[in-house]
Design brief:
Helix content: 55-70%
Structural class: mainly alpha
Number of strands: 0
Distance between the termini: 33 Å
Order of helices and strands: HHHHHHHHHHHHHHH
Shape: elongated
Radius of gyration: 20 Å
Largest sheet: none
Amino acid sequence: MTGLALLAEVGTTADIPLIRTIGLLSDTFGPLAARALERLDGGTAHLLWLADRTAGWGRVYVVEALCRLDDPAARPWLLRKAIDGDFLNGYFAGRVAVAARLHEAVPEFGRDRELLRHTGHLLYMLTHSSGMGMTLRHYPHSAAVLAAHARHVGDVPPTVESFRVVATLALHLATASTEDCGCTEELRTAVLAAYLALLDREDWCETARAALAADDRWLLWFADHSRPRLRLRVFEDLTPADESPEEGN
């Protein structure tokens, strides 16, 4: 630990292979490894290498360092890979949206499925990140990104993953205040209507039914959790669930 702390302050580019290797033990050494790479020339490329190989708290430190560097070279990765589904993503989701200039990328949603999918997960995290990081309420471009996501998310075949994201966003828009949604009442109503129309579409319902038949625990929990605040056709024949999903699932 002492050696890595010294490298974080006085290390040179010759030390990068060692720093990257130590950084793979990211839960313990992530903060110092990220700091060391951040201050060295060419640090962005090495942080991206490490980001692709870390998870949990280690990923938090590395992604936050990438956001602080504000290097255009990191934006494609931040726009498409930063959010990996871990609840700890809530610490940096808002920073990623700002640093990657997500609002400037929304014209690409219609032709970049990876960007669209990742944006859905990022918005999902911004509904869950209160007390951790930026939320939809404080992200300055929530309205534009939500509207663009709602316009395009139905253009691609539904998956259980996309159903989960859209259902969560719909519930948030239906129950949170206008301020907590980060948009005007008019836009909130329009985006919610678009999401509900998708969730009622037969191909989306069939996707959810197949997952429910396979005892998808999250969908079973959400069906119970969302009643009566959000009435979705696919859940009409279900009995209330007694069990919540495991934390983080």
